[in-house]
Each structure stands twice: as C-alpha cells, then as structure tokens.
C-alpha cells in the first residue's frame, strides 16, 4: 500500500547539481525518519542522508557539505539536493524509512556523473 517513488536522477557533469525527490504515497509520512541511500554497480547499498520527523539531519561523510536532505510533509516528499557532484556519486539513489519500519525498496533513480 505504501509506495516509494524516486525521481530526478539524470546524467550530469562533475561539479553539477541535481535535486532528487521521493514521494511516499499511502503513508502517515510526517512521523517517520526518512533517508536516502545509493547503490553503485557491484557494490552494496549505502546510506547517504537521513532526516528525522523534527528535521534533524545526518549525512554520510562522503557527501557531507555537498548534499542537503529536506522534507515537505504536506506533500509526503523527501528531497535530496546534490551539489558539487563527483563521478563517485554515480549510483542508483533510493529513499526509505529509517530503521525497522523500512519499506520495500522502490525503483530508485539513476544519477550518473561524468568527468
């Protein structure tokens, strides 16, 4: 019933920016901490950023200072603003609830950063 739909991924040059969106339909969105994750080819899915219900945030060291997570609860949406993109940011990006109440993964959105 609850579905996660990511969008906004694209092919960009190094140093460019993208804004990813995640819509969590069919959920009581505002009470959950939400996160962004990414998975590069041949690698495990890794944590990127988290935002709690009171909008406290945490970031992986690899993206800190470059990425910003935010949420608009009225739209059931989490955003990931990605600036100063690097080729190593290339991955499929996913959103999800944080912790034991995580949902089934959505399709993700592909981010490709060229040099």
Kindly describe this structure:
The structure is a single chain. The protein has 115 residues and is mainly β. The protein contains no helices and ten strands. The chain has strands spanning 3-7, 11-13, 18-25, 34-39, 46-51, 57-59, 67-72, 77-82, 91-97, 109-114. A hairpin with a 6-residue loop joins strand 4 and strand 5.
Protein topology:
Elements: E1 3-7, E2 11-13, E3 18-25, E4 34-39, E5 46-51, E6 57-59, E7 67-72, E8 77-82, E9 91-97, E10 109-114
Parallel strand pairs: 2-10
Antiparallel strand pairs: 1-3, 3-8, 4-5, 4-9, 5-6, 7-8, 9-10
Biggest sheet, in brief?
6 strands, mixed
- Overall mean pLDDT score? 95
Order of SSEs, N→C? EEEEEEEEEE
Q: What's the N-to-C terminus distance?
A: 40 Å
How would you sum up this structure in a few lines?
This protein is mainly β. The chain contains no helices and 10 strands. The protein has a 6-stranded mixed sheet, with no helix packed on it. Strands 1-3-8-7 form a 4-stranded antiparallel sheet, with no helix packed on it.
Distinctive features:
0% helix, globular, 115 residues, mainly beta, 6-stranded mixed β-sheet, 4-stranded antiparallel β-sheet
């Amino acid at each position: 019933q609850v579905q996660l739909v990511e969008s906004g991924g694209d092919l960009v040059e190094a140093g460019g920016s993208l804004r990813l969106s995640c819509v969590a339909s069919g959920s009581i969105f505002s009470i959950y901490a939400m996160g962004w994750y990414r998975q590069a080819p041949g690698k495990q899915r890794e944590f990127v950023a988290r935002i709690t219900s009171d909008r406290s945030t945490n970031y992986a060291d690899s993206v800190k200072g470059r990425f910003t997570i935010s949420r608009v609860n009225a739209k059931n949406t989490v955003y990931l603003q990605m600036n100063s993109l690097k080729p190593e940011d290339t991955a499929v990006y996913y959103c999800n609830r944080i912790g034991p109440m995580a949902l089934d993964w959505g399709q993700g959105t592909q981010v490709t950063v060229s040099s």
